[in-house]
Amino acid sequence: MRFQLTPRGFLPGLLLLLICSMVMVAASAQGDDALPKEGIEALITGQEGDSGSLLRQVYERRSFKPAWNDEATLAAFIGALSSLADDGLDPADYAAGILQEEYRQVQAMGTALQRARFDVNATRTFLLALRHLQRGKVDPFAIYERWEVPVAEATLDPMMVSNTIDTRQFAQAFADARPAYPPYERLRSALAKYRRIQALGGWPTLPPRDQSLRPGEIHEDVLLLRQRLAMIGEAMLSPNDTADMLPTRYDEALAAGVRRFQERHLLQADGIVGPRTRGALNVPVDARIDQIRANLERARWLLHDLPDTFVLVDIAGYRLSYFRPDGQVWRTRIVVGQPYRQTPSLRSEITHVTVNPTWTIPPTILRQDVLPQVRRDPGYLARHRIQVLDGSGYRLDPFSIDWTRPGNVILRQAAGPGNALGQVVIRFPNQHLVYLHDTPAQALFAQEQRAFSSGCIRVQQVLELVQHLFDDTGTDQHLASLIATGQTRNVPLSRTVPLILSYWTAQADEAGFVTFRPDIYQRDAPLLAALDRPFFLRDER
């Protein structure tokens, strides 16, 4: 007998979850006469994989005696399953709505084999819920072609599972299974907050308007704007508003609330409600709920076994955070890959820094960006201090090359002012050949949304970050002195530093306000589709 996850649509009607065979007539006298614990051992025997192994370990600790012996235990389990909605999961995936009736039916009319099967499947469902809470329901490798971040297997103690059933401490077991990091709990609280708004009918929509709404104006839209921000706790409506304090006047207090909203949505924080700000305000609460749910699932993938010291790159948030050994967190702005040259999600280790780097132009950038420039203007190479090399590294005369068919030439930009990589590169092993680096294009950091690169990550104040890495790893180097030599040099860190490149389209702060980011790489939709796909445990015997 083998159990597998199956889409709900494969089963006609409202078949009972977990015990498809329950509606069968007793198959044999041996099945009818078998004791539940003997039936349990027979059902588990031959189960394959980690799931079957853990299931067997749970029942071995019980000497294969049934676990689900009364309705009170089942009721406590069902209550705990209902709380999974607060994690963005669907309790129906775990049969929360029908388990009790199944139990009553199998106790009243079921054979011993059917009672054993119910017991095994109820335990299997408990294990499934724990796994989903601890490491996520969706396999990221199944929905993202370029996903590289390993998701560790769930770590479940069979004795804990058995004891939890006996003591009915399901809520505590679920709490222990959730990622034990503040960002996860903040997102759970944010989901509850936005669902309360949804239950109230959502927030008002600002109608289209040709002109931007500016501070100081008196307009009916201002009242809607107040109501909209009030629903997320940003701008409270005063019950004492009078004719002298018009709720339709766009006053400075409301403008301050709009600027905070704009900052959290990566918009220019000017207090002017133009098309982009109006569009962000008008995103339905249902869509924001989905965005939070998608990021709760990402948190279940990523927020486990985090080191004390690491560099975290928040791709969609255009931010880098360095969690230092002394407990301080150093943060800065970054530029990431354009939508057609996406910065990948990955885990790696920072191994070394290149000072005064040269830049060998990657084939894609050479073909798509540089060659068109050279064909229009052969002087482009000299102005940008780009050398032309053959496959052996010998320099070639750029004017001797037919740039319509250049062959296997290599273009390398010399170190120094204007180099695309700036003065330093932070390197870490990965198959995408991406890295963190300096840039001469500092003006781009002033933009709120910064997807401008070809996949690598440009870091503001990167020289400060590198010196922190030297100091914190015991690497006895002074970056300014190294740069002053003008020589290209690789400097290994005395200890590697973990690095995580991750993608978050929603994050909640300590005050409960949620930062929603544009889904620049369109990664939310496939995640939500997989997250919403129902599951059944189907008996295929």
Protein architecture, described:
This protein is an alpha+beta fold. Helices cover 38% and strands 15% of the residues. It contains 19 helices and 17 strands. It has helices at 29-33, 36-44, 49-60, 71-82, 99-109, 112-135, 140-143, 158-167, 170-177, 182-199, 220-230, 252-264, 275-281, 285-302, 363-376, 380-383, 462-472, 479-484, 524-531; strands at residues 3-6, 310-314, 319-323, 329-337, 346-355, 359-360, 386-389, 395-396, 410-413, 424-427, 436-437, 451-453, 457-459, 489-502, 506-508, 514-516, 536-539. The strands form 4 sheets. An 8-stranded mixed beta barrel has the order 2-3-4-13-11-10-5-14. Strand 7 (386-389) and strand 8 (395-396) form a beta hairpin. 34% of the residues are buried.
Low-confidence stretches: 1-34
Strand segment tally: 17
- Summarize model confidence as the mean pLDDT: 88
Please report which band the strand proportion falls in: under 5%, 5-15%, 15-25%, 25-35%, 35-45% or over 45%: 5-15%
Helix content: 25-40%
Major sheet description: 8 strands, mixed, barrel
Global shape: globular
Strand order of the largest sheet: 2-3-4-13-11-10-5-14
If helices are DSSP runs of H or I spanning 4 or more residues, what is the number of helices? 19
